[in-house]
Structure of Threonine ammonia-lyase:
Amino acid sequence: MTPPDLSAIRATAERIRGAVVETPFLQSRTLSEIIGAETWLKFENLQFTAAYKERGALNKLLQLTAEERARGVIAASAGNHAQAVAYHGRRLGIPVTIVMPTNTPLMKVAQTEGHGARVLLFGERFDDAYAKARELEAEEGLVFVHPFDDPDIVAGTGTIALEILAAVPDLDTLVVPIGGGGLISGIAIAARALKPGIEIVGVEAELYPSMKNVVEGGSQKIGGDTLAEGIAVKEPGTLTRAIIKEHVDRIELVSERDLEHAVALLVGIEKTVVEGAGAAGLALLLAQPEQFKGRKVATVLCGGNIDTHLLANVLIRELVRCGRIARLRIGAQDQPGALASITACFHAGGVNIIEVNHQRIFSKLPAKDTVIEVECEARDAQAIDALVERLEGKGFVVERAELD
């Protein structure tokens, strides 16, 4: 396979114009202050299917022959590529089959089916679904639409860089998530052609350093449950790895905690919903701000399809980590008035009680004592700290439950 060049990417931009959203590219003043770098965000989560995948999928579908369109297409995806192929396939009258991993968020499955696609769930990871899709391709005579390892797909993602550098041509750095490598490959080709000196940094989830292993010759362990399931790829593309080796300066890893923090900040600061994979670039900026201090940097919020229940968990965990929600295990004598004395401390400190649980059996305390677990919420971490001091001053033994 031959990688697309700048002219192919420009032709793609014209081909898909009007059928995909030219998404906002905005500076975040608050994030810029936090990171210490002028930080720009490309809101690809505002595409109709909430992800950048539409660009490449549409470019591929538009170039199929009439005979190929009639046969129908098949794709393997953890969700965003699936929705893109399904949505534009229906627009163009092309039958679509999608194979998705069994642990794909239900929202992504439902949305893909909502676009009229036949959806099959198979395997735990993208690689399992991919193998099954290739089997069905041969069995049913379908046309396979690869999520990343295809020149037409890469050319589609390159249109993002055209929009970014047209808006802010003096950018220093692009920070881009990596799964199979399609997104960063197209962006890197276009960006290098337009501005050869620009720094391009790839970001993978710490649990899935697949491309980093390939490019750097490493052997880090791959696998596990990640918030960034959209970039949880065990085997990156052949075409994309060659492009990345040539055009990407380095690949960094981000932890699950970093990903959660980035997703929560985007909701809190930018009022925008981004999935774990889409927040990977920002996660790196927040985790390693010293790398980017004083620079003009952009990252792509490449997808916004996160399960609402999972998003709620992420937001609550962020409140716990920043000290606004706490769970206190309070040891007290099991006698009348003990709970009243405890709740009085909460009232005096202006801390709201969310939930209370008595534990008399499973405790290391003496049989006459009890553990009262209180989940509470306060205006800030200092209020919780003051509450703990007040309780201990009253003679109670207090233990705080901690996240990682």
